[in-house]
Inverse folding.
């Protein structure tokens, strides 16, 4: 069976998760990408074809001129709609392209949830090239949040406290992203959480989620995520109802939301597996073939009624972050340890000698630390001790 995998840049989710899973499922994989050389350097054994993957027509044409597909899949935030349209064209199992578009387009998500009575959040959209001065006289509920309509990794997401700051921040983002539309929306207070789900269009499994600690405002950088096996009611039910309203239910999904006084409200829906190594941690933590399950849904295979996931494990993810622009001159190497029955895994996300600007986003993360065990206090202690014993140094 042949699976076409759409990708932009290479990611650890594909390299360490989906491609090995495809091999275990005996799938022949063809990667379609607009960055073929970057992928060939990472996995030279895999068939890689150049394609304008942001254009669903180009994807369909490339597949039609190659070999008949049995599945079209992507784990990219940016390519879910294209993959859904291509899969549907060939009569293959797929996400609803309308749901994929609603998830990706943060302004459309807000409009749709409000139109069906699922949730109403004050928001407005600033189109490409539109003068931010038009926002100055809006009756916005300050503080509010500015972000790219189709952004990822908390890039250019910022909290603003006044009309003057709103206009200024929008101009700054437009200078960096001249082709981007922006969303301005009310700041939703509460604890930040995620919900991880996997469905086949018939049943939907909830895989738990994470409680997320962020950097101080005005930015929203993930710093620590603690696994939660199940969210209390009515929280989980409220989010699942909102996902149903969006049409989200096929394949894997990573939803970010806040909880305030038992009211759960979606921040954004990422219609793919949780990123930043969270999917790799989830597979290990639950002790299930997560990536195989995800791919099987796109092959039309039903999910089992019981995934057989472990329920006795606890875990957290930590991200040491850069605090300045500069060159990384000291950092720990990749590490795998067992300390007091806690599995500890550290992976660098930035190479020694690499110079980067400060982005005030998840792009500033220098590495990721996974700790898994059976006791939360032990996991927290091992993670804290490891982080305090290491050194990350950036030379301006």
């Amino acid at each position: 069976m042949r699976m076409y995998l759409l990708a932009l840049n290479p990611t650890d989710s594909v390299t360490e998760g989906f491609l090995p899973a495809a091999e275990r499922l005996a799938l022949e994989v063809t990667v379609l990408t607009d960055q073929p050389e970057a992928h060939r350097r990472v996995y030279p054994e895999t068939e890689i074809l150049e394609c304008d993957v942001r254009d669903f027509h180009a994807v369909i044409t490339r597949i039609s001129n190659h070999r008949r597909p049995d599945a079209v899949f992507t784990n990219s935030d940016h390519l879910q709609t294209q993959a859904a349209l291509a899969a549907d064209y060939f009569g293959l199992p797929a996400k609803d392209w309308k749901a994929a578009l609603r998830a990706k387009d943060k302004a459309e998500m807000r409009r749709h949830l409000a139109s069906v009575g699922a949730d109403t959040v004050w928001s407005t959209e600033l189109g490409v090239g539109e003068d931010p001065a038009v926002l100055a006289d809006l009756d916005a509920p300050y503080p509010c949040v500015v972000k790219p309509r189709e952004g990822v990794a908390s890039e250019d997401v910022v909290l603003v406290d006044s009309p003057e700051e709103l206009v200024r921040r929008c101009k700054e983002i437009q200078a960096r992203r001249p082709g981007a539309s922006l969303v301005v929306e009310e700041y939703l207070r509460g604890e930040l959480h995620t919900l991880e789900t996997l469905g086949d269009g018939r049943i939907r499994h909830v895989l738990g989620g994470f409680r997320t600690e962020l950097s101080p405002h005005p930015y929203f950088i993930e710093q620590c995520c603690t696994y939660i096996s199940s969210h209390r009611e009515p929280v989980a039910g409220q989010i699942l109802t909102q996902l149903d309203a969006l049409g989200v239910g096929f394949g894997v999904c990573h939803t970010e939301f806040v909880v305030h006084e038992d009211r759960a409200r979606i921040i954004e829906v990422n219609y793919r597996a949780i990123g930043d190594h969270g999917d790799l941690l989830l597979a290990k933590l639950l002790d299930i073939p997560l990536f195989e399950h995800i791919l099987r849904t796109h092959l039309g295979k039903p999910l089992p009624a019981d995934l057989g996931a472990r329920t006795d494990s606890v875990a957290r993810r930590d991200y040491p972050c850069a605090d300045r622009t500069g060159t990384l001159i000291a950092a720990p190497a990749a590490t795998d340890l067992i300390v007091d029955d806690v599995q500890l895994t550290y992976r660098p996300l930035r190479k020694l000698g690499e110079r980067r600007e400060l982005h005030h986003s998840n792009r500033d993360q220098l590495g990721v630390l996974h700790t898994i065990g059976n006791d939360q206090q032990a996991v927290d202690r091992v993670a804290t001790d490891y982080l305090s014993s290491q050194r990350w140094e950036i030379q301006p």
The first strand starts at residue 2 and ends at 7. The mean pLDDT is 95. The radius of gyration is 21 Å.
